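tool_call: predict_structure(chain=1)
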Amino acid sequence: MLTKEKLQKIIDQFDQDELKSQGIFGILQYGGGSDESYVRTNKEGLELFALELLKSARDSEDLLLNGKKNTILFDNEESWVDANSDTFIQYVELITDKQQIKLTYKLTFGEKLILFGFKIIGITILISVFVGLITMLNWFF
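tool_result:
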């Protein structure tokens, strides 16, 4: 684990003004959902994004100890952030425990419709089996 001072030494090794003049970074989607995303960038853009994350890591301990604020804002107005991005990272939310992460997934309308269709088919099959069993029992008795 890197200390705040070691992180600062790494951050200081980069010329941020030069990187900002040459860098481009964007997160785009090639399909219908966020699971179909990719990063479009150059080397300088990757370094700038990594620097933003390193700065967040550097400042995280102070913010968590302070207890008032647990978010670190990203500046998306920078010239190196691709304006055509589908996803903009607004901030980093700091947590203290890995179990605090709650994954929530909302079904799309199409997924809900498919699920409803399968339920209808399942109910239809169950009713058909039940009617068939009753009919077979009536034949024998």
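agent: The two ends are 77 Å apart (CA to CA). Proceeding to next step.
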